[in-house]
Amino acid sequence: MIKLTNKRVFIAIELEESIKDYLQEMQNKIIKNSTRGNFTIKDNFHLTLKFIGEVEDEIIEKIKVCIDDVASRQNDFNLQFSRLGEFPRGNKTMPWVGVKRSESLDKLHLDMENSLEEVSIKKEGKKFTPHITLGRQVVLNRDFSKLVDEIAIEDLTIIVDKISLMESTRINGKLKYIPLYVKKLK
Q1: Where is this motif: HXTX 1 (predicted)?
Q2: One of 46, 50, 109, 183 is an active-site residue; which one?
Q3: Which terminus of the chain has fewer CB atoms gathered within 10 Å of its CB, N or C?
Q4: Residue 89 host element (H or E)
């Protein structure tokens, strides 16, 4: 009997090394103003287009077809950072860097949602808030709004020329995001 192995996956926009370096600088400023937190390692910085969750290999193959379909209809585009934000969770928070609204990003996200729905992957029930997570369960030692006032966000360009199917897994106890499939945009 063959044992099926599930993978925890999501679709993402991977980031260039220089952008990851910049995000790490932002993250370090937050770390200095935190008592604790689970901070994203530099190699894991990305922008999630669609979180999918645990799936079998058969579904992964269907997801790849969806990615091919969507990528074949989408031109390369650029994004810019917008602001430092947070998703508060009680006395903890999830700080992130957002990107400016973009018709191209919105189209890519919607096309991906629609294509995945055709293979029985449900659409997200909430509004798409494009962001790059800097940390989870962060306990700040000062008010977040004060940090926002002090941390200026540079208007850097993020080049979006491919989309990636990523696996979320643990390697030697550390959370790692591994590209399973990468497709260039047209």
Answers
A1: 46-49
A2: 46
A3: N
A4: strand 77-89
Quick: pLDDT tens for 52-97: 999 999 999 999 999 999 999 999 999 999 999 999 988 999 999 9
Q: Tell me whether strands 34-39 and 135-140 are parallel, antiparallel or unpaired.
A: antiparallel
Strand order in the sheet with 162-171: 46-55, 7-14, 162-171, 174-184
Q: C-alpha angle 86/178/27, rounded to 5°?
A: 30
What share of the chain has pLDDT > 70, as a percent?
A: 98
For residues 158 and 76, is the Cβ–Cβ distance under 8 A? no
pTM: 0.92
Structural domains of the chain, ranges and CATH numbers in brackets? 8-184 (3.90.1140.10)
Nearest-angstrom CA–CA distance, 23 and 55: 30
Which of 47, 131, 138, 140 is catalytic? The answer is 131
Partners of 85 in beta bridges: 96
Residue 143 structure tokens: 């008010």
Report pLDDT digits (tens) over 17-47: 999 999 999 999 999 999 999 999 999 999 9
Q: Is 46 a catalytic residue?
A: yes
Cβ proximity of 18 and 30 under 8 Å: no
- Alpha-carbon distance 133 to 135, whole Å? 6
Q: Which residues contact 17 (CB under 8 A, 6 or more apart)?
A: none
**What is the C-alpha to C-alpha distance for residues 61 and 53, in angstroms, rounded to an integer?**
15
